[in-house]
Write a structure and sequence with these properties.
Blueprint: E1 3-9, H1 19-27, H2 34-47, H3 54-70, E2 74-78, H4 85-94, E3 99-104, H5 114-125, E4 130-133, H6 141-151, E5 157-163, H7 176-191, E6 196-201, H8 215-224, E7 229-234, H9 242-245, H10 247-259, E8 262-265, H11 273-287
Parallel strand pairs: 1-2, 1-3, 3-4, 5-6, 5-7, 7-8
The structure holds ligand FEC.
Length: 293
């Protein structure tokens, strides 16, 4: 059997001029308010994407390291930008793959996130190879241990975070929130941290209710409880990208400063060796190939 991996990520614009098309893709044909677009362009400008697009660069480093680790071809597919998931699927098929493992660089399943990756990949593969799609890896021991290492020994109150989603996901029994709380609990237990909480981040202005509490409100509540030091541990993301480098490093930090709170965040997994080895373990399990001793 010839195997290949399609490694999927959200995708990020390379240039400020790409932002309108990128945002339109995220909105999936629904209208974009001009003020929201202007705000997004400004966030990307302040992130400096014309010089370096962090998410795309980190995803390429992860892809290359995973390919070396597995000894299998790995192709990158982006949900909302280039190279698209369909292009990665074609490249995997062109490499002769009879089985394709689909792995998303997001650990938690939701019908509003991972399901979209699955539909794009399955549609592109179109039964031309067997598809082994990994739905979630939120409790993978290597991932839990890696995050536990980042918070072990802290004296700060640990706030685990993840991208919010519209509350309507709860009506259909979506496992997203439960999986997020499960990861947070496992990480805290592994690190021996008892002083922790969870909040959402990065809510989008779509006009419907989103899961809360949002981290900015949550910081206010923590300060009211007398907490002075916070360590943010984003469990729902794995890379330094807009949602980390803006929403946490700028917005949450500014709010913390206003409140007189000290706020730090953990170093993200990015393309680190232990993280790539964890991803390789997840892929090998899907292929039923034993991991090296
Ligand atoms: O660095 C970058 O350029 C990209 C960072 C980025 C990541 C990311 C991950 C997730 N999102 C999820 C859900 C939603 C929903 C909407 C939504 C909107 C945006 C916008 C930008 C954006 N997201 Fe994102 N997301 C990233 C970036 N996201 C930019 C649009 C402007 C804004 O709201 O700031 C609302 C869509 C709509 O309008 O209907 C829902 C989820 C994740 C984590 C899983 C994953 O990575 O796929 C869930 C990274």
């Amino acid at each position: 059997m010839r195997d290949a991996v399609v490694l999927m990520a959200y995708g990020s614009p390379e240039r400020l001029a790409d932002v309108p098309a990128y945002y339109a893709d995220i909105r999936g044909g629904r209208p974009v308010a001009p003020e929201h677009l202007a705000d997004l362009v400004e966030r990307y400008r302040r992130l400096g994407i014309e010089d370096a697009s962090p998410l795309n660069a980190i995803t390429e480093r992860t892809r290359s390291a995973l390919e070396d680790e597995l000894g299998l071809p790995v192709f990158t597919g982006m949900k909302h930008w280039t190279p698209h998931i369909a292009e990665a699927a074609e490249a995997a098929l062109a490499s002769g793959a009879e089985r394709i493992v689909g792995l998303v660089l997001a650990p938690h399943y939701s019908m509003l996130s991972i399901q979209g990756y699955r539909e794009q990949l399955a549609g592109a593969v179109a039964d031309r190879a067997a598809l082994l799609f990994i739905e979630s890896w939120h409790d993978e021991p290597g991932f839990v241990e890696l995050l536990a290492d980042r918070i072990r020994g802290t004296h700060a109150h640990v706030v685990f975070t993840a991208h919010s989603l519209p509350t309507r996901i709860l009506d259909s029994g979506d496992p997203y929130k439960d999986q997020l709380l499960e990861t947070s609990r496992l990480v805290a237990e592994a690190a021996g941290v008892v002083d922790w909480s969870f909040s959402f981040q990065s809510e989008s202005p779509t006009g419907e209710p989103w899961l809360g509490p949002d981290i900015l409100d949550h910081l206010t509540s923590l300060r009211e409880r007398g907490i002075e030091d916070v360590l943010v541990c984003p469990v729902g993301f794995v890379s330094d990208h807009l949602e980390i480098r803006w929403d946490i490093d700028v917005e949450a930090r500014d709010r913390a400063a206003e409140l007189g709170l000290r706020l730090e965040r953990i170093e993200m997994p990015n393309a680190g060796t232990a993280f790539v080895q964890t991803l390789a373990t997840v892929v090998r399990r899907a292929l039923r190939v034993p991991s090296p001793a």
